[in-house]
Design goal:
The structure is a single chain. The chain is of the alpha+beta class. Among the domains are: 21-63, Butyryl-CoA Dehydrogenase, subunit A, domain 2 (Beta Barrel); 77-216, Butyryl-CoA Dehydrogenase, subunit A, domain 3 (Up-down Bundle). It is 42% helix and 11% strand. It has 7 helices and 10 strands. The longest helix is centred in the middle third of the chain and has 34 residues, at 122-155. It starts with 20 loop residues before the first strand and ends with a strand.
């Protein structure tokens, strides 16, 4: 939950991000509020809760992102890092189950006004092959990044390049799984829409999991910003990176600096932190803002410097 000071105002970390604190207490002290009335993943029971007059000792709470208390690779992952690993696994599993269910159906179902089964249809054969390729490629990309990430965690920490790769693999897997499910559900015909049909239930489940922010396609753009910018930066220092505003009337002036917005990116004092500042303009360009926002999505703190001093980072 957000941390507030004695004056009731939200507290922020040095990089400008809001402070969030997690509290651990017996479930019996909470009142469960049944709000999980959704179309899919009903079994997760993602309800809300409330507590009153509850005291939690300091040793049973921690700030999000604070230094780990146990020296073990798993605790070197950010919360977003854990989400990026978990959600695509659920989606890929649902899509795989749908594909296997459809293959069995294709061997037994003869569509109306047809004399052969679905599996004898050349279009269906090609669609099944494409679904198999999509699921396997998405799974392989995800596994590759997760294995590399774990190796980095064991070695001491997960770097920005690895976080970018994991975000790409996670988003790609979630969206590929949803697309495979859509194709299979449509190919299965009208029988798939009946309640109780395995394809119907799994379709509702994958719609639900792919609505999560982990599947947002905006992650592709943010990952592109960071991949292009961070590639120019080494661990030992910082380099200036020019980012064109993209506005036609300013493109020619960009070379002279008047219409160009730049970010100064460098490794901060804390591992995995970025300090960002604007050079020669009164506000960050849209593309520069995208880079800063993208950094936050990967668990990095960001801010920018104006003539008046350091501004708070993007929340």
């Amino acid at each position: 939950m957000p941390v507030a000071g004695a004056d009731g105002k939200p507290q922020h970390a040095p990089d400008g991000t809001p402070l969030l604190r997690t509290f651990v207490f017996p479930a019996a002290r909470a009142k469960i509020i049944d709000v999980w009335d959704v179309i899919g993943l009903n079994g997760t029971g993602s309800d809300s809760y409330e507590v009153a007059d509850l005291f939690v000792p300091a040793e049973r709470s921690f700030l999000r992102g604070e230094a780990v208390r146990r020296d073990y690779p798993l605790y070197r992952y950010t919360i977003n890092g854990v989400y990026m690993a978990g959600f695509p696994g659920v989606a890929l599993g649902i899509a795989r189950a749908m594909l296997e269910e459809f293959i069995a159906l294709a061997g037994a179902k003869t569509p109306r006004l047809r004399q052969s089964t679905l599996r004898d249809d050349a279009v269906i054969q090609a669609q099944v092959a494409m679904c198999e390729a999509r699921l396997r490629s998405a799974r392989a990309f995800l596994q590759e990044t997760l294995v590399a990430g774990w190796a980095s965690a064991v070695a001491g920490g997960i770097g920005i390049n690895q976080r970018i790769a994991t975000r790409l693999a996670s988003t790609f897997a979630l969206n590929q799984a949803r697309e495979v499910a859509d194709l299979i559900f449509h190919a299965a015909g009208a029988g798939a829409i009946y309640a109780g049909n395995p394809l119907e239930r799994r379709m509702r489940d994958i719609i639900t999991v792919s609505q999560h922010l982990q599947a947002r396609q905006a992650h592709y753009e943010r990952a592109r910003h960071l991949a292009l910018v961070w590639r120019l930066i080494d661990r030992g220092g910082a380099k200036r990176v020019g980012l064109d505003t993209g506005l036609p009337e300013q493109r020619q002036a960009a070379r002279g600096g008047a219409g160009q917005h730049q970010l100064w990116l460098k490794a901060g004092a804390a591992p995995g932190r970025l300090a960002a500042r604007k050079l020669g303009a009164q506000r960050l360009a849209p593309r520069a803002i995208g880079a800063v926002e993208g950094a936050h999505q990967f668990g990095l703190g960001c801010g920018h410097r104006s003539p008046g001093g350091i501004k708070a980072g993007v929340p």
